[in-house]
Amino acid sequence: MLTKAKEQLVRSLQSKKGRQENELCLVEGKKVIETAGQAVQWTFSRKDSARFDELVSTKTPQDVAGVAKIPKWSTADMASRKTIVVLDGVQDPGNVGAILRLCLGFDASLMLVESADVTSPKVVRASVGALFQVPWMVVPREDVLRAVLAFDRQVYRLEQGEGSTLNKKITPPCVLIAGSEGRGIQLDVSGPSISIAHNVALESLNVGHALAIVLHGWF
Hints:
With 219 residues, the chain is α/β, with parallel strands linked by helices. The chain contains nine helices and nine strands. It folds into two domains: 4-69, CATH 3.30.1330.30; 75-217, Alpha/beta knot (3-Layer(aba) Sandwich). A six-stranded parallel beta sheet has the order 6-5-4-8-7-9. This is tRNA/rRNA methyltransferase SpoU type domain-containing protein. Pfam families: SpoU_methylase.
């Protein structure tokens, strides 16, 4: 059975403040729990609590969830990947989760600037637990330039616009900045612009789709 103290802890992890204070996050579903591996502190299932549905953010098919230690990644961990992706203002949890999966598949790490909380249940679920495998860090907007320059890599900006076509001869290691579909890149970090040619009937590409094309081309 799930104790009252554990129930209270699980409830607290629904909020960003609770996750930060406890340095823990929820992992929901068997696959995510398996991916989290040794970070998982303990698990619980529907049979452990009559209030299971209140404790999780969604009804998981496996009816199992757990509490996991939020990973801490170093600058060296970030630099160990071929590409460092910088997300500028990408607030959609589904997009951020999918991009974490892309980073896992294409040897990239992830820097987040005013983007969806990586430890939120929606992002954890959308990433299928990739936050436990992909180096990531959250950087305040005012510190981004210093953080990017510290990696001593060529910076590219993934943007819409003429005269900035994707050059597949570009090879990592590099830093790749991407913004939301609506606002684009707001960061004042200079570097060559690259874009993806597409039919003019398509106004813009979803940031996750655009990153998938670029990262695959560089892999």
